[in-house]
Amino acid sequence: MDAILKSSGVDIVKTPFQAPNANAHAERYVLNCRRDCLNHLLIFGLNRLQYVLDCYVSYFNEHRPHQGIGNVIPGEYNFPSKRQGGRVRVNLKDGNVIRKDFLGGLLKSYRRTA
């Protein structure tokens, strides 16, 4: 397996000795991807798998709030205008909510219109 990975240009990085949590972030992402996406689809072929994973990565990084950074979307985390003033109280009577579907509605992202 190491020879196949090296021939593909992949660098092999070994985890530190006696560090059980070294892979925690990667394992959590794989778990989320399988639970939210891959377990619900029948995928035939590598091209379709790549398309599904690209859609999930876009959803995961640009539309899904993360609890580790205060329920902020990672794509908006570095923009100070999006984070000023802390939490905003939401009044559901004002404005509309729009929904963006990913993978035919399997994944959904909701946003308040301006």
Task: Explain the overall architecture.
By secondary structure, this protein is an alpha+beta fold. It has four helices and two strands. The N and C termini lie far apart (51 Å). Residues 81-90 have low confidence and may be disordered. Strand 1 (97-102) and strand 2 form a beta hairpin. Helix content is 35%, strand content 11%.
Characteristic key phrases:
single chain, 114 residues, alpha+beta, two-stranded antiparallel ribbon, 11% strand
List the helices and strands and how they pair.
Elements (H helix, E strand, L loop, with lengths): L1 H6 L16 H13 L9 H17 L17 H4 L13 E6 L4 E6 L2
Antiparallel strand pairs: 1-2
Percent of sequence in beta strands: 5-15%
Task: Please state the overall shape, judged from the principal axes of the Cα atoms.
Answer: extended
Helix content range? 25-40%
With helices defined by DSSP (H or I, 4 residues minimum), what is the helix count?
4
Classification by helices and strands? alpha+beta
Report on the biggest sheet: 2 strands, antiparallel
Summed up:
The protein is an alpha+beta fold and 114 residues long. The protein is 35% helix and 11% strand. The radius of gyration is 19 Å and the shape is extended.
